[in-house]
Design a protein that fits this description.
- Helices cover 53% and strands 14% of the residues.
- A hairpin with a 5-residue loop joins strand 3 and strand 4.
- The longest helix is centred in the N-terminal third of the chain and has 44 residues.
- The mean pLDDT is 79.
- The strands form two sheets. Strands 5-4-3-6-7 form a five-stranded mixed β-sheet.
- It is α/β, with parallel strands linked by helices.
């Protein structure tokens, strides 16, 4: 019978700690490195290590006798020198990483508070001014100041940071949508300050462990009309472009507008007639129900008298100042009156409560 292919496994060699004192070798990143000349051997074999030491550094055998305290101190000194040299390369990397993380954190705060991206330079300048006093008694004050200066917060940098965070949030949201068991959607269409209709889509996801999570899924700009079919086709385009798993849909909540709830051409009716949509429930948002109740509630007699009194006080500067001083003398909880506008119906209750 012919011999089959060799089944021997390749040998693996490991570094032994006693080689440090015997042959002035140590291990760095899985390599055997000489402490004297910093060269490495191909395999961590005793023969390779011993041959290098006795041929290249032969005088160390006599200058530092084996098993002596002199050799131990020399090995310790050489190891500390090697570690110091390696830290020169690793320290800038960690410092740069910390500066990048700080830049992301500041950019997130600016985006969270809707501040201009160019304010990042102002934040950095303020931080440097504060550091001069805060760390005045610190021994490493110069290192702290240098670390703050390394944080990149220019307008272009903050813009890139926000774009990267936006992309990361999109990926996390896409992952959550794919991992959830079911989800429900809420639609709210309103007009912004430049008369562009914006369709806000919120999603509530339920996972296998019965935890729920709510997120803003998308804001779709409706450039033309806002009929039910316009909203439907805009949402369909969004589903196709993002591969949204619409078969997980269980309910849709709307504001009850005719474009949303129309029996034939309403958004809900078009969704239910489409074969791509599963059977789902539709609800009327409770916030909009309260708004309708507020409009239907007849409070004209009360509101007219209260508004007349408030306007008479706030229309004249002298009367308003005297009214404020009287409230301050009586240690009232509030020192001024609120104005009411019919556009914001929720302010009616606050107005009457303050009055």
């Amino acid at each position: 019978m012919s011999a089959g292919p060799s089944s021997k496994k390749p040998k693996t060699y490991h570094f032994h700690s006693e080689w440090e004192e015997d042959y002035f070798f140590t291990t760095t990143n899985s390599k055997c490195v000489c402490l004297i000349c910093h060269s490495s051997v191909a395999l961590a074999k005793k023969g390779n290590v011993e041959r290098h030491f006795k041929t290249v550094h032969k005088k160390y055998e006599s200058d530092f006798p084996a098993k002596s305290e002199l050799r131990k101190r020399k090995v310790k000194e050489l190891k500390s020198q090697l570690a110091a040299q390696q830290s020169i390369f690793t320290r800038p990397s960690s410092k740069s990483k910390a500066a990048t993380i700080a830049s992301f954190r500041v950019s997130r705060i600016l985006a969270k508070h809707k501040k201009p991206f160019q304010d990042g330079e102002m934040v950095k300048e303020a931080f440097l001014e504060a550091a001069e006093s805060l760390f005045d008694d610190f021994k490493n004050k110069s290192e702290i100041i240098s670390a703050i200066k390394d944080v990149q917060l220019s307008r272009n940098t903050v813009t890139r940071r926000c774009e990267m965070m936006d992309e990361d949030l999109r990926e996390h949201l896409k992952k959550d949508v794919n991992e959830c068991v079911f989800f429900s959607l809420q639609f709210d269409e309103s007009t912004d300050v430049i008369d562009t209709s914006q369709l806000c889509i919120f999603i509530r996801m339920v996972f296998e462990d019965m935890t729920a999570k709510e997120e803003l899924l998308k804001i779709i700009s409706l450039k033309g009309k806002t009929r039910g079919e316009d909203i439907f086709w805009a949402f369909k385009d969004f589903i196709n472009s993002t591969q949204l798993p619409i078969y997980k849909l269980v309910s849709i909540t709307t504001d009850g507008a005719p474009a949303m709830t129309g029996r034939i051409n309403g958004f809900i009716a078009l969704c239910k007639s489409d074969d791509d949509f599963p059977d789902f429930l539709n609800y009327h948002c409770i916030i909009h129900q309260q708004a309708l109740c507020g409009k239907m509630l007849n409070m004209k007699d009360v509101m007219d008298i209260a508004l007349k009194i408030v306007y008479s006080i706030r229309a004249r500067s002298l009367q308003r100042r005297l009214f404020r001083s009287q409230l301050e003398e009586s240690e009232a909880e509030h020192t001024d009156l609120l104005l009411h506008t019919d556009v914001r119906w929720l302010s009616r209750g606050k107005f009457l409560q303050r009055f």
